[in-house]
Amino acid sequence: MWVSRFSGLGAHAIRRLTQGKYALVPRTPYMHVSSCRIKSPLQLPPQTHRYRFTTSATDSCEDGNEEEQTINVTFVETDGTQKHSKVPVGTNMLEAALSNDIELEGACEGSCACSTCHLIVADVDYYNRLPDPTDEENDMLDLAFGLTGTSRLGCQIEAKPEIDGIRFALPGATRNFAVDGYKPKPH
Ligand code: FES
């Protein structure tokens, strides 16, 4: 009974089709969707939109490989030497300094419990782009030598596209030891 019923429905559909009641719709070609920001030409925004890419790296969607996005960061050492580095987005500035052989101490290893990762943001404009320091960071900054109006703790600053091109000056001394060549020796 079921078979004949379905057969009847099939015949009905074919009849309607031949009478022009149903339109044959061509199948939409399968479109690959990946995790890229712009997934297909159909998803492109109107031409009136303009995008400004401030980071030095690009996202690559080919073969599923995404290049690591980095920003440009410069550390100015106490003798005036400038060290330029590419820092992966999401990395904090203590990690960035250490991985670029910058002499920044980081005694508490980034847990915001010391002031030895003290950095001075060289440009006020960049300083203003950073999120406000937390109360914990402010407490630790109060202990830092040579505190300035643009001082921050390196371990609390995360690399983000907005701060691409930021420059940091290292202070001449920290609470634990001087970084201008002099290191106290035990008596
Ligand atoms: Fe101690 Fe940043 S390493 S506060």
UniProtKB/TrEMBL annotation:
Residues 71-174 form the 2Fe-2S ferredoxin-type domain. Its cofactor is [2Fe-2S] cluster. It holds the Pfam family Fer2. Keywords: 2Fe-2S, Iron, Iron-sulfur, Metal-binding. SUPFAM superfamilies: 2Fe-2S ferredoxin-like. InterPro entries: 2Fe-2S_ferredoxin-like_sf (IPR036010), 2Fe-2S_ferredoxin-type (IPR001041), Adrenodoxin-like (IPR001055), Adrenodoxin_Fe-S_BS (IPR018298), Beta-grasp_dom_sf (IPR012675). It comes from the Eukaryota. The keyword Iron-sulfur applies. This is Adrenodoxin-like protein 2, mitochondrial. It comes from Spinacia oleracea (Spinach).
